[in-house]
Automatic annotation (TrEMBL), chain A:
Domain Glucose-6-phosphate dehydrogenase assembly protein OpcA N-terminal, residue spans: 108-211
Source organism per UniProt: Bifidobacterium bohemicum DSM 22767
Transmembrane portions of the chain: none
Ranges annotated as biased composition (Polar residues): 72-94
Limits of the Glucose-6-phosphate dehydrogenase assembly protein OpcA C-terminal domain: 216-346
Highest taxon above the source species: Bacteria
Stretches the record annotates as Disordered: 66-94
Protein name: Glucose-6-phosphate dehydrogenase assembly protein OpcA
TrEMBL record, chain B:
Alphabetical UniProt keywords: Carbohydrate metabolism, Glucose metabolism, NADP, Oxidoreductase
Sites where the protein binds NADP(+): 66, 173
GO CC terms in record: cytosol
Catalysis: reaction(s): D-glucose 6-phosphate + NADP(+) = 6-phospho-D-glucono-1,5-lactone + NADPH + H(+)
Associated pathway: Carbohydrate degradation; pentose phosphate pathway; D-ribulose 5-phosphate from D-glucose 6-phosphate (oxidative stage): step 1/3
The protein's role, per its UniProt record: Catalyzes the oxidation of glucose 6-phosphate to 6-phosphogluconolactone.
Entries under InterPro entries matching the protein: G6P_DH, G6P_DH_AS, G6P_DH_C, G6P_DH_NAD-bd, NAD(P)-bd_dom_sf
Gene Ontology terms: biological process: glucose metabolic process; pentose-phosphate shunt, oxidative branch
GO molecular function list: glucose-6-phosphate dehydrogenase activity; NADP binding
Family named by the database record: Belongs to the glucose-6-phosphate dehydrogenase family.
Organism whose genome encodes this protein: Bifidobacterium bohemicum DSM 22767
Residue ranges constituting the Glucose-6-phosphate dehydrogenase C-terminal domain according to the UniProt record: 214-510
Gene: zwf
Name of the protein this chain belongs to: Glucose-6-phosphate 1-dehydrogenase
Length: 349, 512
């Protein structure tokens, strides 16, 4: 069920949610966290799909705050959205009308779903909202907020009345994160801040900025994406003979952030020199080669969902190792919301 | 994994909590591979593990059975089971990798040559797949077959491994049918396998449930202070099934509800409820506490007043008409096997002195439910008119084990707006998430992975199994002399005898 609430107020949204919970005879408090998604309008659909999937493992209330108005020229500059032109601060009624139609366009998941629009009762406000329930909202409820004008700079107090009491808050930027997530209004109120530099406009620069401003509560999905690689490599070294690794070589796309992180991690843990070989036309890690006294151990992934393990004296073996989906990565991140000390040591270099 | 003392894998950092443990090279041999459990649970769980990337690439799976199957025919059978029952999406690439390690050995348990072939198959897996001599044997067979299979494994040299490799055996409940047979079973298996290599599995009691119980009791500060005889009136532990014996007549008749469920499942739940805080959650420390509390269990002096048994009669199970136990196919018309059993036990410790533990289980009861209800004493003084609290029962904490795992707290609240003050029972509910389970691993996935990783399981040890039989044996002996159990209509909550048993002490069974 989808409820459109153009020109609304947060307390009307909160009331509506309460009402829906009562109508459906469920307690709204059995959520394990509030997941705030700070996103651009174009990314909303994909982000919500991933969040809905993850909510089946972690029942949560999802609050998506749209931080642009969806028009092509308004993509926020990622290095800190401190400049807001004054013209945006003035709520004008024609703009509002335009936005009302935007609300309907807030990426309804499918055409057949039940959509209700609640007419605004009163003057125009700076907020359009949409509430999703039941089949349209994974295991929880989804609240989409489209603030306008000056309200955009106060996302923290905007979501405050809608948070589930007493449970952790996680904020996720599916694409362009603020330069300093900890200082962002939403980031500051969160116990966990998830960024995804690889999906930003300029991955390398974004990641560099994030690393410079890194705080223990920050995590980037580039790290989550190599969990399987790390686990496979660790289990390869579990097997005898337990000889030291003398050098490491990685191959993959030059722009792959996971590749850089994996290289740093392997170098640190194995205390061995690491070299890289960049492969054109790929954005992923394609192989890891560990040199040992008895030969080379390698884990390579040429195709998207199969990897090959080679070990000295054994036939190469294929193993299913599909690229991780956004939903899987997000689910993993929501599983542990305490600081990841290993990531910390990799980030601090 | 456990033997590596001097060498530490540089890629395994104890602070690295997100790295999943992937099983090392190994294979799993399943006896009774065409059985229901294997089709519906084991084979799909193996696929799901592979799909989640938790099995080694060199994994081998060998089926042992009577059918005249080739490796390919068996692989087709596995594929069919997997496609029907797997939890994660079916991926052709995962399947193809898994299928490469699938083998079938045709034979019966008394066929020496078949075990020779099994031994060769396993060696061939070592050679072709690189399973490195690590093999687990899953005995998905009736307990009566354990001795012969164990012996054959020993004779064919499969039970013993070389220095760096391991052999493990997985046994499902029931672990014997009385103390003596449990000891005999243990003797047979431990003659062949090292005690640390024997994994006793009670699939009713997953690791998840045990850990949830531990977290509830020992991670919180508000339950422990009242978790004793000063506040607790009594404890009820229930495992009710809505189904009958189904096709298990051969196994069930002569065994009965108490041996089938109370001995292992309910006594384990009781031990987890009643035990003291373990010094750590390591398997050995947990076992120490469970053993202590099981050894402090005292049977009532008068078994006739403190136990009850019943047998389901024809009736309507919910909306379905069902026959009685004695009319089930394969059951002797004069069978005295109980399908319902209730017993009272006491725990002789300071914490539980005078607090009865009521355990009940049965088939064809009102609904499928497993729960632990800790029922509290009434407040020593109620500053209300008598009429105001007439409807107020005892406070209770109910731990639901299944379905819908969670916790309910029952307490009194004022009825709003009533002209006269009135306090009535209300409940507050926590559920592990209405959709939590959708993406959570099946109990069998975790269980098989634990075995392959050699993680010490939280399952009952020999000592616990034996203590449990010590508790149950005198009751079974007493029942053996009683004749026919009291019939109860299918779909009800058991025989009148059980209700009277509690009524005599001024209590009543909870309606789950």
């Amino acid at each position: 069920m989808i409820i459109n609430m153009p020109n609304t107020e947060t307390n009307r949204i909160a009331r509506k949610i309460e009402e829906l919970h009562q109508e459906r005879g469920e307690a709204g408090n059995d959520r394990v966290l509030t997941l705030i998604i700070s996103t651009e309008k174009d990314e909303l659909k994909e982000a919500l799909e991933a969040a809905n999937g993850a909510s089946r493992e972690h029942p949560c209330r999802v609050i998506a705050v749209i931080n642009d108005d969806g028009s092509p020229d308004s993509t926020p500059n990622q290095a800190g959205q401190t400049t807001v032109t004054t013209s945006n601060d003035v709520p004008e009624s024609p703009v509002n009308t335009a936005h009302s139609s935007n609300v309907t366009a807030m990426a309804a998941p499918n055409a057949t779903c039940d959509v209700i629009t609640i007419d605004p009762d009163g003057a125009a406000t700076d907020l359009d909202a949409q509430v999703r329930f039941g089949a349209d909202a994974g295991a929880g409820e989804v609240i989409i907020l489209q603030p306008r004008g000056g309200l955009k700079r106060h996302a923290d107090t905007l979501v405050m009345p809608l948070l589930v009491p007493d449970i952790p808050i996680v904020t996720w930027w599916p694409t362009n994160p603020p330069a300093n997530p900890a200082n962002d209004p939403l980031g500051a109120m969160s116990g966990r801040r998830i960024t995804d530099a690889a999906r930003s406009n300029n991955p390398a620069a974004t990641f560099e900025r994030l690393a410079a401003n890194w705080e223990p509560q920050d995590i980037d999905l580039a790290w989550t994406r190599i969990t399987i690689w790390r686990a496979m490599l660790a289990s390869m070294l579990d097997q005898p003979p337990h000889l030291p690794v003398t050098s490491v070589k990685l191959t993959g796309g030059e722009r792959s952030l996971p590749l850089q992180l994996l290289a740093t991690w392997l170098g640190r843990q194995l205390a061995a020199p690491v070299s890289m070989e960049y492969v054109p036309d790929t954005d992923f890690i394609t192989g890891v080669y560990l040199e040992r006294g008895d030969g080379t151990l390698s884990l390579t992934r040429e195709h998207s969902d199969e990897a090959v393990i080679s070990q000295p004296g054994q036939k190469p073996q294929t193993v299913s190792m599909p690229l991780r989906t956004l939903e899987e990565s997000l689910s993993e991140e929501l599983r542990r919301i305490d600081p990841d000390e290993v990531y910390a040591s990799v980030i601090r270099g | 994994m456990s033997e590596q003392t001097s060498w530490a894998n540089p890629l395994r950092d104890p602070r690295d909590l997100r790295l999943p443990r992937i099983a090392g090279p190994c294979s799993l041999v399943i006896f009774g591979v065409t059985g229901d459990l294997s089709k519906k649970k084991l084979l799909p769980a193996i696929y799901d593990l592979a799909n989640r990337g938790l099995l080694p690439p060199s994994f081998g799976l060998t089926g042992f059975g009577r059918r005249d199957w080739s490796n390919e025919a068996f692989a087709d059978f596995v594929k069919e089971c997997v496609e029907t029952h797997c939890r994660t999406p079916f991926r052709e690439s995962t399947w193809n990798n898994l299928a490469k390690g699938i083998r079938f050995v045709q034979g019966t348990f008394d066929d020496k040559a078949a075990f020779e072939r099994l031994s060769q198959t396993v060696q061939e897996l070592d050679r072709d797949r690189g399973t490195r001599g690590n093999h687990a044997f899953y005995m998905s067979v009736p307990p009566s077959a354990f001795p012969i299979v164990s012996k054959q494994l020993a004779d064919s040299g499969l039970a013993k491994s070389s220095e760096d490799a391991w052999r493990r055996v997985i046994i499902e409940k029931p672990f014997g049918h009385d103390l003596e047979s449990a000891k005999e079973l243990d003797r047979v298996v431990s003659e062949v396998f090292d005690p640390n290599s024997v994994f006793r599995i009670d699939h009713y009691l997953g690791k998840e449930t045990v850990q949830n119980m531990l977290a509830l009791r020992f991670a919180n500060s508000m339950f422990e202070p009242i978790w004793n005889a000063n506040y607790v009136d009594h404890v009820q532990i229930t495992m009710a099934e809505d189904i009958g014996i189904g096709g298990r007549a051969g196994y069930y008749d002569g065994i009965g509800a108490a041996r089938d469920v109370i001995q292992n499942h309910l006594l384990q739940l009781m031990a987890l409820t009643a035990m003291e805080e373990p010094v750590s959650f390591a398997a050995s420390d947990l076992t120490a506490e469970k053993t202590k509390v099981l050894s402090a269990v005292r049977l009532p002096n008068d078994l006739s007043a403190n136990t009850a048994r019943g047998q389901y009669a024809a009736g309507w199970q919910g909306s379905e008409q069902v026959c009685g136990y004695l009319e089930e196919t394969g059951i002797d018309k004069s069978s005295t096997t109980e399908t319902y059993a209730a017993i009272r036990l006491d725990v002789d410790t300071r914490r539980w002195a005078g607090v009865p533990f009521y355990l009940r289980t049965g088939k064809r009861l009102g609904k499928r439910v497993t729960e632990i209800a800790v029922v509290f004493k009434r407040a020593p003084h109620l500053p209300f008119e008598q009429t105001a609290v007439r409807e107020l029962g005892n406070n209770a904490i109910v731990i639901r084990v299944q379905p819908n795992e969670g916790v309910t707290i029952r307490f009194g609240a004022k009825v709003p707006g009533a002209t006269a003050m009135e306090v009535r029972d209300v409940s507050m509910d926590f559920s592990y998430g209405r959709s939590f389970t959708e993406n959570l691993p099946e109990a069998y996935e975790r269980l098989i992975l634990d075995v392959l990783l050699g993680e010490p399981p939280l399952f009952p040890t020999t000592k616990e199994v034996e203590l449990s039989w010590q508790i149950l044996d005198p009751i079974e002996e007493y029942w053996a002399g009683l004749g026919q159990p009291q019939p109860y209509r299918s779909g009800t909550w058991g025989p009148g005898e059980a209700d009277e048993m509690l009524a005599r002490e001024g209590r009543h069974w909870r309606m789950p």
